[in-house]
Amino acid sequence: MRAGRVVFIGAGPGAADLITVRGVRRLAQADVVLFDALTDPALRELAPGALWIDVGKRGFCEATGQDTINALLVSHARQQRHVVRLKGGDPSVFGRLEEELLALAAAGIECEVVPGVTAALAAAAETRRPLTRRGTAGAAGRSVSLSTAMTRQARLHAGRHADTEVFYMAGRQLGALGRALRQAGWADDAPVCVVSRAGWPDAVSSEHRLRALAAAAVLHAGRPTVVTVGAGAAALAQPSGPPGLESAPAGRALAAP
Q: Are 122 and 12 in contact (CB under 8 A)?
């Protein structure tokens, strides 16, 4: 008996309309959907006849174990079902895609990966601050690093590997992240942009200098947070003429786009 198949779909970082057209089409074919905690509930309207199973993970909270998720994927696919694994953001960016692909390969189950918009890009769009900048000197703004602030051992991880560093899962560690980045060689006055719930209508953005990053903790408390440091966090230089994005004072919220 031939098994079903599994499609990994990046739902995007927030509102349902950030999913790709291909993602919408594949989701509509689903018999079973294993969905993450940060996916928009409105996406259920695209597969109303499917069985929806919550396998979400949230930092510092009780979550579905990875072995359980792997077993569910294999079990449902072996029942000749079209299974969708709906992941927030992009499946390949801090989405535990590797473990799930390996489990399906070991079981001989066919799969497909549909990319999505990752939170770093949504944060850049929210604040209208490009992650890469041509700049006026040397290679400033030409490289971007995506990092998770927390390791598997729940230890803070920070460094300096690119002109722009973007840190995921940093919301509860902003003060510690600021100290770690300064120890890694970032200047006290390096620009930092913090966005929580990027991609959602209630997204909140603020800008800071690195030495004052801890001040963002109150504004973004309890919300999924992305921290951008370096060239891509700096406010755009304003040309003469009609005003565009105005730079907020350090530590102040940015105006909504």
A: yes
pTM for the model: 0.86
| CATH code of the domain in which 38 resides | 3.40.1010.10
Q: Which domain holds residue 225?
A: 119-253
pLDDT digits (tens, 9 = 90+) for 52-100: 999 986 554 557 899 999 999 999 999 989 999 999 999 999 989 999 9
Question: How many other C-beta atoms can be found within 10 angstroms of the C-beta atom of residue 18?
Answer: 21
List, for residues 139-178, the tens digit of each pLDDT value.
467 899 999 877 665 677 788 889 999 999 888 889 999 9
Dihedral-angle region of residue 86 (phi above 0 means left; psi in -120 to 50 means alpha; beta otherwise): beta
CA distance 57 to 54: 9
At 221, list the tokens: 């408390």
Backbone dihedral region for residue 80 (phi beyond 0: left; psi -120 to 50: alpha; all else: beta): left
Q: Are residues 74 and 129 in the same domain?
A: no
Residues marked active site are found at 36, 57, 169
